[in-house]
Amino acid sequence: xxxxxxxxxxxxxxxxxxxxxxxxxxxxxxxxxxxxxxxxxxxxxxxxxxxxxxxxxxxxxxxxxxxxxxxxxxxxxxxxxxxxxxxxxxxxxxxxxxxxxxxxxxxxxxxxxxxxxxxxxxxxxxxxxxxxxxxxxxxxxxxxxxxxxxxxxxxxxxxxxxxxxxxxxxxxxxxxxxxxxxxxxxxxxxxxxxxxxxxxxxxxxxxxxxxxxxxxxxxxxxxxxxxxxxxxxxxxxxxxxxxxxxxxxxxx
Length: 252
Ligand SMILES: [Zn+2]
Ligand SMILES: [Zn+2]
What we know:
The protein is α/β, with parallel strands linked by helices. It has two domains: about 1-45, no CATH class; about 50-245, Rossmann fold (3-Layer(aba) Sandwich). Helix content is about 35%, strand content about 15%. The strands form two sheets. It has a four-stranded parallel beta sheet with strand order 1-6-5-2, sandwiched between helices. The chain has a two-stranded antiparallel ribbon with strand order 3-4. The termini are far apart. Residues about 1-5 have low confidence and may be disordered.
């Protein structure tokens, strides 16, 4: 411990020197960041993402449509709420997601998590939400990427919400192909039976309101499949938290 402070001070000085010598650039737009920019994405990029407009459906978080919500019907009955920050695809939001998922900038997960933590949820969700559960990545992809981006986002939300992250409550038991180019029907079939909840995890989820975290909600196939596994394993309620949400009127 005695040597820790000087070493940390030296590290901080070295980082400050590097920042001075090598101006930081935004991982989404490659422009230099300004001194007021915290994190890895610049303020200009954050201001350009297309936020989901308000008012929103209290349950699914879609911008409010008059009458019956056409998006809620795509959520299983035990899914209490869903919230997302912005629409995808979108030039800026897609670059932020790409920096996190494909270009190795894991720190973007923290920037995203800090913004997701500020999204508003119904009062009962605020009271009840107990554990953050990142959607697991398939093992090969996680090994190639070096991290699960959903876990990084969940870990950033956790201290701000004051609830723990439990990454082992649901596991991927099949290596599915990437969902990116599949139709909604193909996505559901592709992901079916891809997840399981290990028996020793079931005590810690029983009766709880869990919040599943993913980078993007496209058709809901992956989140709905995870929610189904968690509900069958004993969770009482599940909510969803994602950075992006697909614009298509057929998705939720
Ligand atoms: Zn930028
Ligand atoms: Zn709705």
